[in-house]
Amino acid sequence: MKWSVVVLCSASFVFLGGAIPARAAPPSGAALAQNVCSACHGPDGNSLTPSFPKLAGQGQAYIIHSLQDFKSGRRSNPIMSSMAQSLTPAQMDSVARFFSKQKMSPGTANPKLVALGQRIFRGGLPKQGVPACMACHGPDGMGNEPAAYPRLAGQWAPYLVDQLKAFADGKRKSTNHGMMNYVASRLTPAQIKAVASYLQGLH
Ligand code: HEC
Ligand code: HEC
To answer: Is 85 near ligand 2, meaning CB less than 6 Å away?
Structure first.
């Protein structure tokens, strides 16, 4: 009973159409994804709007970590902070498992930005103190599941740019002693744009 109320409340705020079936049991990850998250992240986690991140194929541990951060206030976003409030740890687990098992849709890179983006991703910018992104995000940008490091390959470039700027400004605080704050604050806007475009096309 409690869960049908929560789902109805959060869903009524974003739901685009159709009726939500009343449920006695807590909704499964798949049901939550369909009824609530799909409005922004797409039914299978492949969002159509570049400011909403793709969740399909993202690591389960990283999705759980992000939801916990939104819930605790460590990471703040007007939409996601309230969205995460209504999720129990078991639901975070289940919805994260559902999205991690979906396939991320491929993206494309701007050919003019590939060379610089690839250089930053693979080798970093030693003169600026920027480490290679792939050291943590994996040689193919698929992330590191045991460490909860996010997958970046195929993610929307505009979303990646937003996050890198938020890290650079300190609006988003990173784990690992602020590692991403350190990295992002050493990149110029043009370098951020190039590496984000490269990552969107990486598959
Ligand atoms: C009304 C739109 C909306 C809905 C509904 C929504 N989200 Fe989000 N979500 C966003 C936006 C916008 C962001 C980017 C937030 C930011 O910039 O920090 C986001 C970010 C996230 C992230 C972080 C991804 C990353 O790569 O760091 C996760 C995880 C997430 N959402 C999970 C969910 C889950 C699970 C649900 C359903 C229970 C859900 N979202 C419902 C809009 C939405
Ligand atoms: C030492 C490890 C490390 C290095 C090197 C590193 N990252 Fe990260 N990155 C992380 C971790 C850990 C997170 C998750 C931070 C959090 O949620 O608190 C992250 C998060 C991100 C995110 C947010 C993803 C999302 O879905 O919201 C982006 C974008 C990103 N990194 C880009 C880069 C780029 C570009 C580089 C290279 C210039 C880079 N990272 C280098 C560890 C690293």
So the answer is: no
